[in-house]
Amino acid sequence: MSLVWHIARHDLRRLRWPLVAWVAVIAAKLGLGVLLIRGAGADSTLNSFYPLAYASRGMAVLEALLGCGLVAAVVHGDLMVGTTAFWMTRPVSGVRLLAGKTMGLAVIFGVIPVALTLPWWIGCGYGVREIAMGAGETLLWQGLVVFAALPLATLTDGLARFLLWSVVVAGVIVGFGAQITGHPGMVAIAIAGGIFVTGCALSSAVYFFIRRYWASIAVLAGSVGLAFVALVWPWRFSIPEGWTGAERPGRIAPGVEFTFREARVRTRAGPDTDLHVWFKVKGVPPDLILGGGGTENIWSWPSPLVLKREGSLGEMDQGAIWTALGLSPPNEATDGIARTNAWRMQQGLPTWTGEDAQRLSTYALVPDGFRERVQKDPPSYQLRAVLELVRPVVLGEKPAKVGETLVSNTEVSRIASIRIDYRYKQGKAEVSSSRPPPLDPVTGSPLATRHRVLMALTEHGPNFLGIMKFSETDSKLSSSWPRREYFLINRERGNTTARGEGRGGTTKLFRVGTVAIVWRTLHFSPPIEYDAASKTWATQPGWLEKVTLAKLKFRTEERFTKEVRVDRFTIEPGDRPGGAR
Amino acid sequence: MNIIETDNLTRRFGRTEAVHGLTLSVPAGSVCALLGPNGAGKSTTIKMLMNLLPSTAGSARVLGVDTRKIGERERRQIGYVSENQQLPLWMTVRQLLDYCRPFYPTWDRDLEKTLLTQFALPEERKLKHLSRGMLMKAALLSSLAYRPKLLVLDEPFSGLDPLVREEFVRGVLEVSATGEWTVLVSSHDIEEVERLCDRVVLLDAGRKRVDETTFDLQARFRRVEVTGAPAGARPAPTMLGWEQAGALTRFIASDYAGETTERVWRDVFPGATLTAQPMALREIFLALAKASRSATTSKGAAA
Q1: In chain A, what residues touch B103 (CB-CB under 8 Å)?
Q2: β-pairing, B182-187 with B199-204?
Q3: Is the ipTM of this complex over 0.95?
């Protein structure tokens, strides 16, 4: 063992200057990560994100290239090919030399990157489990570089030949790869990668053990060939890509009732028509949000004609978020219905009652002429929807000031910049109405405030093997619920809150050393408040002066499928304008 | 006991036969020279003996072990210095010794110090900054300090100036005199080897031409000058380098056996004056090489 370490130490000493460069490149990559986390230059445009991110990516590429060079340098220090290497006439067997080289490579590609990244991980709030996973992933990627470069380093006698053959082999792989049509799938890629890496390791080991050139070449060529076969092989099992939202019903789900309320269309340019179907919902506790995922809508006529459409559901929040934030929820039964009825009266439609406050709608694209067909011959209708009961949980709340951080376990959000856009400010109160809030007479939606808060946030958290923790999956039958949401709260001013518009504005994501770094802009609009003096509802620019930023996550309590059957499906007359529910 | 034994050892590179059916043995404690012109197969033979190259046919044993199975244990007892060896040039002399030392349980620190002084090697100078002679001495030092049972020197004098050669040879001589070491040295620099070796193996075109002790070899070779030899008189077909100019006849005898041989010559050259001079190894080597070349030329012409 001491001789193995003696060989490894000899290599490390010989390569001390390249290793300094190696350390510098990794440190530079992580240093850029620090700048990304600190939100260096982040503003509402996020323009400085890409220079930093691309510089960090450049460092990662440089790290990989330098890594290949280091593998070659380690192996070429004691040439395997030829008959003139110093070690060959010394009491060093191929096995011992391989062990020594492996130990040296383990230090260079294992100990050094992990040790250098450790402060980064600790600084990013990683615990022991995350550090172990991060170290594992780091070793995996570095191992791939080592194993890919090792056979050519073993079978060549210098850097020039190593580079030449690397280009040739890479060309062969790319050339064959270009022949593969379609995406092979994760399983095929994983198996092919495994075969390739194993073949590379085996090829190198064969040469260290028996020093037969053509045997190693044969093993390497064989593994490359097998890897290609594995890529195109029709594997019968698959790794699920993305979260498919397996059902997890609990005690609440069976009590949730859906009743068909009405359907309306909204015509728009193009061959399709928007169809909105409303359901009355009962049995959802007020502290939970009923979130909808994907829907399957099936209309069946006796003809027989069946129309199937996929859609998505909205969400039903009876004030759970406000409750979680410790605020008094707005009275949806009065205010919400009042807003809706104001619009319905304008349209000459019958008004809704308080019972209709608990409602959910699905949305689907149907062919033009669908309404006429339904009116002429009402079909039966079946809805199959994936639903979630979600509990809002406050992850933290801090004054809305630059530099404040919200920390929750390994997730950290930091306010990088705040800008209040007063472009349309016209005095203290901008719009007024006797009912909250005023509705746009054309769209039926609440009037947008004339000023807003543009906030840039940086977020970071663990992200292993590229599985994006911050992704907002919206695939079929999966949850569309955003994982995190931010709120501005003014606790002095009547427990009001404003919710980030568009769920985050612009989002940019980058990974550095298993840490996902997100730059996000949030656009907040101050809420429309009741001004007791003027007895009007109005937007208040002063509301922004003492606000806090709260971050919520939404924990899925139950996930279940609901089916609703309607024997006679009808569509209400008149087009529905967009916006209001 | 023989330290090196080969039996019909053969190595081919494609259609070229670098070594053909070489059978030899090197006894323990001897200093054996592997001589031959460039391309004779000396280095190939040594590479097979060191298990750097596999043989195409035949077998070889070094320190009693089949050369194909030479491992760490055997290499701890073998010192190897070659003109073509790639030394770790980035190291200093001190670092080279520090690197080599742990591999050899028998490493002798005192001998290391003695040799360092004797070779006048600058310890802190990097190998890449050493002259060729110094480099070879450093390699020799790193191969001697553990007192190997077998020291293999493959063309150690190439490119060395006379002074350094002298120092190198003296170094090997002094060291070999201190122990029961066996030395195998390959070279085409016969004058230097002559002082070293007590046994000679002459290779030519991959084939063994001579394999005997230096004493025996020099004893059986004589340069003979005959003055006043009768016309047409020739003692035996084994004579090499036969030259006749007027009354003076010269030839090299390869089977000289003292008074017995001289009696035969006097019978062949009655009344002539005969002188038989001992030959240096270099002269013997040249005579054999010339004879071999002319034989090859004759064969080619006949073909």
Answers
A1: 3, 6, 90-92
A2: unpaired
A3: no
